[in-house]
Amino acid sequence: MKYLAIVGTNSDVSTNRxxxxxxxxxxxSEAEIxxxxxxxxxxxxxxxxxxxxxxxxxxxxxxxxADGVIIATPEYDHAIPAVLxxxxxxxxxxxxxxxxxxxxxxxxxxxxxxxxxxxxHLRQILDSPELAARIMPSSEFLLGKSQGAFDSTGNLIYxxxxxxxxxxxxxxxxxxxxxxxxxxxxxxxxxxxKFTWEE
Length: 199
Fold this sequence. Notes:
The chain has 199 residues and is an alpha/beta fold. The protein has one domain (2-198): 3-Layer(aba) Sandwich (Rossmann fold). Helices cover 41% and strands 15% of the residues. Strands 1, 2, 3, 4, 5 and 6 form a six-stranded parallel beta sheet that branches. Strand 1 (2-7), helix 1 (15-26) and strand 2 (32-37) form a beta-alpha-beta unit. The longest helix is centred in the last third of the chain and has 34 residues, at 159-192. It is globular. One of its GO terms (molecular function) is azobenzene reductase (NADP+) activity.
């Protein structure tokens, strides 16, 4: 599987980035995970013409080519960061590249809740008609007290959280496979569908 892992913050120092970097290394034998930074994307502003900013087009292309998307979000005031919301608004307004794309949401925070409210907020956004992503159900990965969660080499040291992450990622691999087969069947049946007067 090839996944695009979106770092959902513009902060230069982020345990959410560290989490995705760890996942990239830890699951390298099971999937190819490419990290993507959204901090260089322009803030969303409805363009006067049809030109799409180069960075937005790049993100859309990477999403379209990926088998699935992993989004790591911190929590700011019970919600996702503005930079992540802006990136999703660009996708919604332009390519709608997340439509039917399998998505896994993860999150880390310095507090004990591990971005739970932000993850709920993100699910709601991704479920909107203009994005319509296929979000893996019952799959919250909440990494609380994340400032002490990684050692000097970037490895996750909370054994219970490592086991939880392993299980969730295995489920996401299966979810991606099932979703792709479901969508393939959907396209096939759509092509061969007959109108009632043809039967």
